[in-house]
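User: Modeling request: complex.
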Amino acid sequence: MQIASDPTSAFANNEERNCIAAPLAVSFLTSKSALGHALVEEKGIKLPKIYRAMLPDASGEKPKIDCEGGAGLGVRVPPDPNADVHPDESGNISPGEGMSVAPNIEALDWFRIPKRLKHLYPDAIGSNKQVIWSMGEGPFVDAAVGSSLVLRVTSDTHGQVEPDKKLLLDEFQSALARTQNEWQKDEG
Amino acid sequence: MGREHYEQSKKLLLKLHELNVQGKDQTDEADEIREAMDAPARGLTSLERKRLKGLSADLYMLIGEEVKESAVLSDIDQEFLNSYRAKDWDRVLEILRKKNLCLEEHLVASTRAICWLEFGDYDVSLLFAEYAVKLNPDEANYPTFVKLNRAKLNGEPPVAQKPSPQQLVNATILELSLLQTA
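Assistant: Request completed. Predicted assembly structure:
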């Protein structure tokens, strides 16, 4: 898969692979997530702190926008056997499915924590190509995490970034992509 | 249902560590296994998840790359013995990961084998039993322990000379007693 040095190019690359993003989202990609930024700067609300292991983009400084392989900013869809979401007949995603995140590094799946961090996390057996990223500062509770996105906590160790209402798949992928600049490398 | 997700996750984890032993853990093949681990991992209970996370760390022992947890426990030897006597196998496994438990490696391996045997994970128990044999070929109980696990995995009736985990316990306790009096 081609690495997207320009976040917008990922959309073109992925269109053929059932990973469609709405062109209207592209303009948001180079700036902070609209809602996230507004919430933080105008209302002083802290977005929940969430962690996810993802491949870096070409710059190495931000997570790669990708909906394949579960190692990027995006969700996998059928026919991928590990699909994160299952669009309905109209192509909509409903709240209840989304992109997996964790409240801390220890809570990430052991096979997603890069093996090179084994000295810190002795169970780590993940790919060294991946990087652990985090975004937000607030507590790990159900809350908005970006435009059209909410965190739904499913357990002490797992949460999902879901659409806040029924959304078309490409709109949902775009909303996730818009959070790209919010993520920072954070490997403890 | 029941252990379906657990068994699947465990099998994939063992396969991933096997690739690690072969120096192939950073290959596309390994990434495919990681991919396949996603779905069953979602269906794990918190206890199953905890066990497999621990197993992932413990398996590094087999290639001499285990990283012990630096957080120390006061009176760790006593807690180990108490957990062992209470057959609190999950706790025993946790304590074995601590840096300040003074126990010979073959005893760590055999104790791990006992824990996994008690869980009914004979495939995992076998790995640690075999490693215990490798570390201490003179210990008479270990080869029998290996045979028991193989028999269990093959669905064979219990072997006549059932290895005595109790003897292993005694050996462990003796070891600790010696350390404490040293």
